[in-house]
Design brief:
This is Phospholipase/carboxylesterase/thioesterase domain-containing protein. By secondary structure, the protein is an alpha/beta fold. The protein has two domains: 74 residues, no CATH class; 227 residues, 3-Layer(aba) Sandwich (Rossmann fold), CATH 3.40.50.1820. It is built from nine helices and twelve strands. The strands form three sheets. A seven-stranded mixed sheet has the order 5-7-6-8-9-10-11, with helices on both faces. α1 runs parallel beside α2 and α4 packs across α5. The longest helix has 20 residues. It is globular and about 40 Å long. 43% of the residues are buried.
Length: 337
């Protein structure tokens, strides 16, 4: 993991494709040797692909599973059925076990933020960064879950990436429900304060999930089911990501006065680097325009120069200031570097 601010170019449970062109290889050969690496082993082979090729790898892998030989090691084994010595198909079944790390506030508890990592990453990596990050308000409790393994690719994902297909609403709603339960518990626990502010944020696919959860919050319902959403958010933060259900969200907000009123009370920060090669920078403007268009009056959109698919130092400093101001928190006694 290289840090320019925070850059997650290496992935915890990575797929090492034995080629410089994994998409072409999946198309051309009948058997692919794959290795699932442990958390401490790093690779750029998958993460360095363009965003659309990640979708294509997943799609092609799904089609080729009957002729893929897997060598599973480490943490992935509990969520998979191992291939036999003959190299027969190994299917990954999704288990919704959200391992969660909690960083308690160093001062008075005034806000709780659930933070969602990106595709193929882990909560532990973000927890380490947040724990050591200077400049954060001491009033924040951070809750940092890890997404379950994806169904077709043995990496963590909040929802399935489907190239050219409909959004995985089941995965989104499962993740949204998990976050809602984490935040709902904050309101029921006796912490000596009845005014704890609630927020959600995320990076990349975590950003997409966080923005979807924000939509559920103002609408008061999960998408596609009509099931009540139990939490009202005060703020949301989205970095280097996108809003996955824009058209449906805008349609459901039309003429909904209660939702528009809640939207007017919810603050959103959206940040993106202009040279992001994984999620196009235009996704940030598209998302912010959608939120503003349906009644979100407090949307901050910031673009950063030459950061790639990362959270830059400048962006981190902006977020720290934004969180402190919007949630009414104390400033850190230690300035951000």
């Amino acid at each position: 993991m290289a840090v320019q601010g925070i850059r997650f170019s290496s992935i915890p449970r990575a797929i090492l494709l034995q080629t410089h062109n994994p998409v072409a290889q999946l198309k051309q050969i009948n058997r692919v040797e794959l290795c699932i690496l442990s958390r401490r082993q790093l690779t750029r082979s998958f993460w360095s692909l363009p965003f659309c090729d990640k979708f294509r790898c997943g799609e092609l892998w799904s089609k080729q599973r009957s002729c893929i030989k897997m060598e599973g090691v480490g943490n992935a084994s509990s969520n998979t059925s191992r291939a036999g010595s003959s190299g027969v198909e190994q299917r990954f079944t999704r288990h919704y076990n959200f391992e969660t790390i909690v960083l308690e506030p160093k001062g008075e508890h005034l806000a709780t933020i659930v933070w969602l990592h990106g595709f193929s990453d882990s909560g532990a990596r973000w927890a380490k960064e947040l724990k050591n990050m200077e400049g954060l308000s001491p009033n924040i409790k951070w809750i940092i879950p890890t997404a379950p393994l994806a169904r077709d690719i043995p990496v963590t994902a909040w929802f399935e990436l489907r190239y050219g297909q409909d959004v995985d609403m089941e995965g989104l709603n499962r993740s949204a429900e998990t976050v809602a339960n984490l935040l709902r518990n904050e309101k029921t626990e006796d912490r000596g304060s009845k005014n704890v502010k609630l927020a959600v944020g995320g990076f990349s696919q975590g950003c997409a999930t966080a923005l979807y959860i924000t939509a559920c919050s103002v609408l008061g319902k999960y998408g596609g089911t009509g099931k009540p959403f139990p939490v009202k958010l005060d703020a949301a933060i989205g970095l280097s990501g996108w809003m996955p259900t824009t058209k449906d969200f805008v349609s459901r907000m039309a003429g909904n006065r209660d939702a528009s009123e809640r939207a007017g009370k919810t603050s959103i920060f959206i940040g993106h680097c202009d040279d992001d090669g994984v999620v196009p920078a235009r996704s940030a403007k598209t998302s912010s325009d959608a939120f503003r268009g349906v009644g979100f009056n407090d949307v901050t959109l910031k673009t950063y120069v030459n950061g790639g698919h990362s959270a830059t130092n400048e962006e981190i400093a902006d977020i720290q200031e934004w969180i402190t101001t919007k949630l009414g928190l104390e400033k850190s006694r230690i300035p951000a570097q």
